[in-house]
Specification:
The protein has 284 residues and is an alpha+beta fold. Helix content is 29%, strand content 27%.
């Protein structure tokens, strides 16, 4: 493309515009989400009611988009990395918005800046656009702090990266799962103890596929104290582990309540995060 002398190329203008964009940023207003469907077997309400015009692409009006592409790729030159991945924004009820904020609906991601409008990212629907399109949008910062940005990234990871536990393990931890979900948000000592945990991880030795598996649970706390509300952490641990059955191919190893500093790097990478809200099984 020829560019008059003294004028910036359109590519430079796009690159300049994209320098301000970050993962989690949004555009509001009427936008159109495009997806391909099979006219012979439509699966959604939108595709069922699509005009029968011999086409297999459908546009649906949405309230806006949120950017899913990592920031490092957004700011690279558009001729090198021309594409941006986006997800549509959808409005949800107040109750659903709270569940999404608590991580209980992994198909969605909370957008902190859009909380008053109850607009969230629908992660089940993604679309690719070129950076020239994004350069024309009015940017709204979706995440205003580093912590908010990390939580948004974790929501994306949770949607795509949940470990698929064996079905019998899901049954094995069912009582523990029910207990922790029931108590987590309670204004009780146990509820506050659960909220003081950063995450729960489980390690399978020698492997998840072995006939007999030794499980080590790491309840990772956020502070250095050896007790919570005057109760030693090992007592909370014993209370929770008693909910696990003693039958089947799983046995308990030396589980513990620890800090990240207590874990070795090998322990961390050899274990899997236990998403008690939505355990993903291999048949899911």
């Amino acid at each position: 493309m020829a560019v008059p002398e003294g004028e910036a190329s359109p590519y430079e203008a796009i690159d300049t515009a994209l320098q301000a964009w970050r993962q989690g940023d949004c555009v509001l207003g009427e936008q159109w989400f495009v997806h391909r469907f099979d006219p012979a077997c439509p699966l959604t309400d939108a595709s069922v009611t699509a005009p029968d015009a011999g086409v297999d692409l459908l546009e649906s009006a949405v309230s806006g988009f949120v950017v899913l592409t990592q920031t490092c790729d957004l700011v690279r030159r558009c001729r090198e990395r021309p594409f941006v991945e986006v997800a549509p924004l959808v409005e949800v009820s107040e109750a659903v918005a709270r569940e999404i904020e608590r991580g209980r609906r992994p198909l969605y991601a909370a957008i902190p800046a859009l909380r008053p409008q109850r607009l969230v990212a629908d992660l089940d629907r993604t679309m690719t656009v070129e950076k020239a399109v994004v350069a024309q949008w009015t940017r709204i910062a979706g995440c205003r702090t580093d912590q908010e940005a990390r939580r948004f990234t974790l929501a994306l990871m949770r949607k795509r990266g949940r470990f698929a536990f064996p079905d019998d393990f899901t049954s094995f931890v069912a009582r523990l799962q029910a207990r922790l979900l029931e108590k987590h948000d309670r204004q009780s000592e146990e509820g506050r103890a659960l909220r003081a945990l950063r995450e729960i991880r489980v390690q399978a030795i020698p492997s998840w596929e072995a006939p007999t598996v030794e499980l080590t649970f790491w309840f990772i706390r956020t502070d250095e104290r050896d007790d919570f509300a005057g109760v030693p952490w090992y007592q909370w641990l014993d209370h929770w582990l008693q909910l696990l059955p003693s039958a089947g191919r799983f046995t308990l190893g030396q589980s513990a309540v620890v800090t990240l500093a207590d874990l070795t790097a090998k322990d961390y990478v050899d274990s899997d995060p236990l998403d008690l809200d939505y355990l993903s099984t291999r048949d899911a």
